[in-house]
Amino acid sequence: MTKPRSRRGGGRPTIADVARKAGVGAITVSRALREPGRVSEDLRRQIQAAVDELGYLPDPNARALASARAEVFGVLVPSLTNSVFAEVLRGIYDSLSDSSYRIQFGNTHYSGLEEERLLQVFGPQRPAALIVAGIDQTPISRRLLETAGCPVVQVMETGPDPVDMMVGFSHFDGGRAATEHMIEMGYRRIGFIGARMDPRSQRRLAGYRAAMEAAGLFDARLVTTTPVPSSVTLGRELFRDALAKVPTLDGVFCNNDDIALGALFECHRASIAVPKTIGITGFNDLDMMEVAFPSVTSVRTPRYEIGRLSVAMALAAIAGKRPQDPVVDLGFELKCRESTSR
Amino acid sequence: MTKPRSRRGGGRPTIADVARKAGVGAITVSRALREPGRVSEDLRRQIQAAVDELGYLPDPNARALASARAEVFGVLVPSLTNSVFAEVLRGIYDSLSDSSYRIQFGNTHYSGLEEERLLQVFGPQRPAALIVAGIDQTPISRRLLETAGCPVVQVMETGPDPVDMMVGFSHFDGGRAATEHMIEMGYRRIGFIGARMDPRSQRRLAGYRAAMEAAGLFDARLVTTTPVPSSVTLGRELFRDALAKVPTLDGVFCNNDDIALGALFECHRASIAVPKTIGITGFNDLDMMEVAFPSVTSVRTPRYEIGRLSVAMALAAIAGKRPQDPVVDLGFELKCRESTSR
DNA sequence: GATACAACTGGTAGCGCTACCATGACGTAC
DNA sequence: GTACGTCATGGTAGCGCTACCAGTTGTATC
Description:
Chains A, B: This is Transcriptional regulator, LacI family. Chain A is of the alpha/beta class. Chain A has helices spanning 15-22, 26-34, 41-54, 60-67, 83-96, 112-122, 139-146, 171-184, 199-214, 232-245, 257-269, 287-291, 303-318; strands at 72-77, 102-107, 129-133, 152-157, 165-169, 190-194, 223-225, 251-254, 279-281, 298-300, 327-329, 333-335.
């Protein structure tokens, strides 16, 4: 019958302790913390004093259970080591760091099945929002997202049919712009080199192909791809393969900067003049592309901005202020540098 | 008085629904799910059937509240874009992906204050384990870790006084080994170039200094550092600074591979022969160092393995099987390549 | 046949918080 | 003065799950 003082909880102060100390009801403490405007100035101060004195911190688990809503953002990316996603994550993180939201992340490893599994894990927790990379979810994933009961932002790409909201840019246009630039600079036998070949890479390839066909330059033998994960080492190998296949190659549009760097290093090693004999273009415009020798032309993609904006949109949606246009195209910028200026 | 059917929860099946359908008590369902061994074969099958039929998924928030333990690993790293931490995260992730643990991460931005704040956010949630980068926590952070009531693994470095467990290697030894190698190869005026200069960088510098002093080669003017975050671009600038300061420079030990790459590119640009005129050594051995031209000597660090092992140790501790030695040194490996072979 | 013990199962009572509804104290309008 | 809204506050009843303890059954032991 005597109060069985908190047998499980490690004896941390609870909202009831604060309420007792402040001489108010527990619910008033709860309100003072979550909606200060709805509690009188006086009580608010009193409660704050009690909170400070006891060192009270609300239990997020109890909160989540009672309100059927966890203060958690779920983030699903296909890779952690790909610095592109690392920057998206950084943008997400920075935009959330002064809120009380926590971030939970999942690595889909470019697998639709894994994505489904992760959504199944994230869902029951009732996250405040979900941010997922890509727009090619499986039907099951789509349904899971649609029924998640929280704002959903698909990032990295834009497309016609958002689950809820989208922030990204057109990989097709990026690929096309890069290729058109090389054609303009006088390159003719321009190869495409790509690894991993996820949906976004596929669309860059499609953009490349569109540009090449429009110029009457397309030749299937110019395309060298592999499903193997991308790396600088692999870039070097693929470049060698491409050159062996088409000795007249005079340029390469690389699916990403790692591949481009591998190609560049191989050119150095084989004493192939860049940009004179062979032009090189990358994708993403990592920091090092500008510093490389010669500096490498690349498509600058707004990765960090995608992260930031996706959070801003999710936060707005949580607050009930949905954007008029749920799809935001942040564009890209072609950075023309030495590696294609002959 | 009539059952007010689940007014908040979106009508998902609860453990009570499963229990009713299976004709058992709720607690038995709970046990069948968490400790199958303690429930008879018969009931287990019956319960599983009910679970499958209803599509029941336990509510992690309710679980966390009732058991005072969330199935969450908290991970604190100082940076997301530094690929070193990205690989640690990947290791952590891969080791946890077939468990039901979720991963919550925090970015301390190399700030002790921010680390304290994050621990304060993570703590009340009662995570299953905490993994934090570094061993130089502030006294407040240390206390928060000690009182977290869960296994704690400090990663990246080893040291004498773990909060709980540690997995890493000696940055001092790594810095010394790299420097000794350069001395052995005949370099004399070997500079140290470092950005960010977090505690680990400081220890690499100390290792460099120890090696240089032991050989009677140390000269304070050889050291060029900045608190600015590291990047390839910055590496190039620092290298130029170092060379301007000490024109007789014949080698550089770079605090990390980004810096080394910046130095290498600058050598190309300025037609400085590597390794003949100047030798270059990096730290971490990113994939690209082997492919670079010339390939770059670097200290290979077990980043992915650190992530994996930290989880393995935490999981063992959760299961009550603490390792006999709470500190594991995974070592490093000096990769000698063209950039220092003159 | 009584006793002891293990193996299994269930009831009860919370975990710490918030949704919902009720209450009382004020205004304001008529 | 009565009716009605608004504001500030509180009580009650869960949210969905598990810790704790109790009860039941079956089996081994003497």
